[in-house]
Amino acid sequence: MEAQRSPGARIPSIGGRLEVVVDAIGRAESLDGPASKMASTVGRVRSPGVAGVLSGTWLGHPLHPVLTDLPIGCWTSAWLLDLVGGRSSRPAARRLIGLGVLAAVPTALTGLSDWADTEGPPRRVGVVHAAANSVGLACFAMSWVSRRRGRHGLGVLLGMVGASAATVAGHLGGHLVYRRGTGVDVNAPSERKEEWTPLEPAQPRPPDDGAFLAHADSEPILVTHAADGWHGIGDRCSHRGGPLHEGTVGDGCVTCPWHASQFRTSDGAVLTGPATHPQPRYEVRESEAGFEARSVS
To answer: What angle do CA 23, 41, 180 make, to 5 degrees?
Structure first.
């Protein structure tokens, strides 16, 4: 007798099933070993200056998602030509695949640089994302070679396999950004303090160097002093949320203790990466009750 589903039971959607699989990858501690070795290798060859270039500090926007459109666009266009373009479109499809392979190299480098600063489930999902992309890149590279040698059918087959692997990688990449918020400015959801709000210092009085952690309601603010008065910037590093008050403050800037991003303490501007987003900026003033702060647009 066939089992019947209760009226209130929900049939899992395709997205729900995929989410279960991705969550399982994020919990797979067996991935920690290879992921840590891979991240250590990236860390050894990546200087702070290189990290800033690869992350997109100079652009003011993460560079990796900008570059992903290039190989994806080339390979998707080639895939469509293989399906409906006919014999006359074969040279164009081959060129598109070759361009996609070339574009995938800097895309992979920027992705590795961003991924090396992750931990826990995002790092585990990221290493599988990288592996799937590597399979896709290898298949497309072999597809290009096969087409050049006149083995068009094999080239098309390899392209289809590569497209499948790239699709899996794309889903995992979307999970990292839209579910995990990897690469997103961690301060973006913070509530702006439009009115003067009392600060609650984390210590009874400011230290001799004039830098201290305070809170406006629940928002952590790094308060510093300069010749022109008091300044405040968000204490959570926009890159991965590192506590800036635990970093080094001096010469008008603060260095994040986690990944060495530097910000100007007067306005939160990014001085060196891998951060790409500036810190929230606050006006700070002394009052009879202590200190007050409000957001600066």
So the answer is: 25
